[in-house]
Amino acid sequence: GGYFPASPLREPFASLFQASPAHALALVCELTNHAITAWRQLHDLTHGEQATPIPLVLGFPWGQQTFWGDGRVYSWARGHWAPPPVLCGLMALEKWAFDEIARGRAVDEVIKDVVTGHDACAVLSIAVALTMESNWVSEVTLPLAISQQLWHWDIGRYVGESESGATLIGFRHY
After folding, report:
1. 149-173 burial: b if 16+ Cβ within 10 Å, else e
2. In angstroms, what CA-CA distances link 143 with 15, 57, 70, 147?
3. CA 40 to CA 27: how far, in whole Å?
4. Residue 66: what are its φ and ψ, rounded to 5°?
5. Where do the H-state alpha helices sit in the chain?
6. pLDDT digit string (tens) for 74-92?
7. Which of 100, 93, 101, 102 is nearest to 124 (CA)?
8. Which of 27, 58, 71, 125, CA to CA, is 20 to 30 A from 151?
């Protein structure tokens, strides 16, 4: 089945996050950045047919970071709108991040690992989910909480997910 349906259990991501998280983080970052570069190039090629993308710049304690995308890109980590390997990688990243917090690692450290180096706003949906699930408030989560653009995208994500009637087919081993 390759990378379909998208799932955090797909290889090589599942094993790589267990065996070598640093390599897994780098691989998912490279795949996602490649996909967002293509997304930006497509917007350049279809000039006049779509709006010009504007990046979202967030100021984290470790510095400013620029993210590209729209509501669809924000949903990549939810298993929508991207090539299946990118979807699986982001879903595995999210699973790893929640597992790290469950093991007692600091939310701020995990969010930094999740977003650092990424150019696509897709990882922000993971960071927002970590923030909301843990009810964590800090200097790291502040830029996520005060971004009107993130609120807009996350409300859209929430509405879309509540209307979709999604199944768990991609979360089972085959």
Report:
1. bbeebbeebeeeeeeeeeeeebeee
2. 32, 9, 17, 6
3. 20
4. -105, 130
5. 13-19, 21-45, 71-74, 84-102, 107-115, 122-134, 142-146, 148-164
6. 999 988 888 899 999 999 9
7. 93
8. 27
Q: Which residue stretches of 116-165 are H helix?
A: 122-134, 142-146, 148-164
**pTM metric for this prediction:** 0.88
Do 122 and 73 form a contact (C-beta atoms < 8 A)? yes
Q: How many residues does the chain have?
A: 174
Closest among 71, 68, 2 to 34, alpha carbons compared:
68
- Distance CA(29)–CA(26), nearest Å, equals 5
pLDDT per position as a tens digit, 147-170:
999 999 999 888 877 665 554 555
Task: List CB contacts of 166: < 8 A, sequence separation 6 or more.
Answer: none
Q: What residues pair up with 56 in beta bridges, in sequence order?
A: 67
